[in-house]
């Protein structure tokens, strides 16, 4: 898990994003157990309260579930993976559009550049 301690984005939200990326890449799967709060805090060298906040956020988003006495697991719901991929793809597209607008590139030119690039790769 890669955390940027100099980022303005809170560490606990970075942790949530990293779990989502691991799911999208297939490194984590629905039903997988994730480390305990204490284990994760030690691994990442962060405060256990930060890990607890990240885990609470993931549970609030429906990404994980905690089973008393067993631990925290990625929710065993195949729709989660599709939802995360769609969410991340939409964020990437939005970032691309913002970056291109920042360069003064109009939507038609963006579309043309994408078509040309995709055709080169295809």
Notes on the structure:
The structure is a single chain. The protein has a 3-stranded antiparallel β-sheet. The model has no long low-confidence stretch (mean pLDDT 92). With 122 residues, it is mainly alpha-helical. The protein is elongated, with a radius of gyration of 18 Å. Helices cover 62% and strands 8% of the residues. A hairpin with a 3-residue loop joins strand 2 (64-67) and strand 3 (71-74). Helix 1 (11-25) packs across helix 3 and helix 2 (37-44) packs across helix 3 (48-60).
Write the layout of secondary structure elements.
Layout: H1 11-25, E1 33-34, H2 37-44, H3 48-60, E2 64-67, E3 71-74, H4 78-102, H5 107-121
Antiparallel strand pairs: 1-3, 2-3
What attributes does this structure have?
122 residues; mainly alpha; three-stranded antiparallel beta sheet; 5 helices; 8% strand; elongated
Strand and helix order? HEHHEEHH
| Strand segment tally | 3
Helical stretch tally: 5
Radius of gyration: 18 Å
């Amino acid at each position: 898990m890669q955390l940027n301690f100099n980022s303005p984005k809170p560490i606990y939200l970075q942790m949530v994003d990293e779990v989502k990326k691991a799911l999208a890449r297939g490194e984590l799967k629905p039903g997988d157990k994730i480390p305990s709060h204490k284990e994760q805090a030690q691994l990442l060298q962060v405060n256990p309260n930060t890990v607890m906040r990240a885990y609470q956020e993931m549970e609030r988003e429906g990404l994980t579930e905690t089973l008393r006495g067993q631990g925290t697991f990625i929710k065993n719901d195949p729709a989660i993976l599709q939802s995360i991929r769609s969410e991340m793809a939409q964020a990437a597209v939005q970032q691309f559009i913002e970056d291109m607008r920042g360069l003064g590139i109009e939507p038609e030119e963006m579309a043309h550049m994408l078509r040309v690039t995709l055709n080169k790769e295809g």
